[in-house]
Design brief:
This protein is mostly helical and about 30 residues long. It has one domain. Helices cover about 75% and strands about 0% of the residues. InterPro entries: Erv_C (IPR012936). This is Endoplasmic reticulum vesicle transporter C-terminal domain-containing protein. Pfam families: COPIIcoated_ERV.
């Protein structure tokens, strides 16, 4: 169940990593 839910999250994380962003920096990106 957890893998199913985090499956798309992992894809997003990889996309963020490729762009050089960090999920923890979402606040900075929003601003």
């Amino acid at each position: 169940s957890d893998d199913d839910c985090c499956n798309s999250c992992e894809e997003v994380r990889e996309a963020y990593r490729k762009k050089g962003w960090a999920l923890s920096n979402a606040d900075l990106i929003d601003q």
